[in-house]
Amino acid sequence: MVHTAFTQSSVTGADMLVCEGGRFNCTSDVCDVDCEWSGWSVWTPCSVSCGTGHQTSSRHILKSSQYRGAPCEGPKKRTRTCTAPDCGMSSHSTFIVHLMTENTF
Fold first, then answer.
1. CA 53 to CA 47: how far, in whole Å?
2. Greatest CA separation for the chain
3. Which of 15, 47, 49, 80 has the fewest CB atoms in 10 Å of its CB?
4. What is the per-residue pLDDT for 11?
5. Which candidate, 16, 15, 17, places its Cα nearest to that of 7?
6. Looking at residue 28, what is its pLDDT?
């Protein structure tokens, strides 16, 4: 492998440089780049207003792996169960049931 030394001021637009001893050395070796995920988003609101529902959270890839870098592992989305208040009968439903009961006698 051939290395050619350049001072920092003489290098422009070079893609693959290695700094050694205050000088940049061009090399044909490519650097592996590992995948990088963003942090998880906040959980979404519960999918239901009463009873059992679900919430989701997601993340995205900030930097894809390149060359022999570590791949992105794990899910982009996660889900968890959430529980909202019980789905009791509303006052309107109670009124209708009460009227139906009174009219049957």
1. 5
2. 102
3. 15
4. 42
5. 17
6. 61
